[in-house]
């Protein structure tokens, strides 16, 4: 008989723990359950966001930094407090990053 652990009912995370020592990875996953996943995406000033459209809906919350985002043909400035929704399969990326951009990213369902 195999053991199936119960699903996650609660998880607490601190951004300081997620950011930790500087890492080569721009995206650091915080949570993964079937219905959603979340992570911290950090792009350095002058950095390039090479992401491709995802198969899941996304929501971004900018914690700090400044830059711009293009979603489809819409261009917007982003800074701390910006919230952006991007539907699945829509082309998007951050650009003209003038201050390190730290962004909470939420995928629904979980990123594949």
Question: How would a crystallographer describe the biggest sheet?
Answer: 6 strands, antiparallel
Q: Write down the domain tally.
A: 1
Q: Segments where pLDDT lies below 50 for 5+ residues?
A: none
Distance between the termini: 29 Å
What labels would you give this structure?
Jelly Rolls; 6 strands; mainly beta; 1 helix; globular; 112 residues; 6-stranded antiparallel beta sheet
If you had to describe this structure to a student in words, what would you say it looks like?
With 112 residues, the protein is mainly beta. The chain contains one helix and six strands. Strands 1, 2, 3, 4, 5 and 6 form a six-stranded antiparallel beta sheet that branches.
What is the topological layout?
Blueprint: H1 15-19, E1 27-33, E2 36-43, E3 57-71, E4 74-79, E5 83-86, E6 92-108
Antiparallel strand pairs: 1-2, 2-6, 3-4, 3-5, 3-6
Entry summary:
The chain has 112 residues and is mainly beta. Helices cover 4% and strands 51% of the residues.
């Amino acid at each position: 008989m195999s053991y199936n652990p119960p699903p996650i009912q609660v998880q607490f995370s601190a951004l300081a723990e997620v950011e930790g020592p500087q890492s080569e990875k721009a995206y650091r996953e915080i949570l993964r359950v079937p219905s959603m996943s979340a992570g911290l995406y950090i792009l350095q000033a002058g950095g390039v966001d090479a992401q491709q459209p995802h198969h899941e809906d996304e929501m971004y919350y900018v914690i700090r930094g400044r830059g711009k985002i293009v979603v489809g043909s819409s261009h917007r400035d982003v800074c701390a407090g910006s919230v952006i929704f991007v539907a699945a399969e829509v082309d998007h990326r951050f650009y003209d990053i003038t201050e390190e951009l730290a962004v909470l990213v939420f995928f629904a369902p979980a990123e594949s």
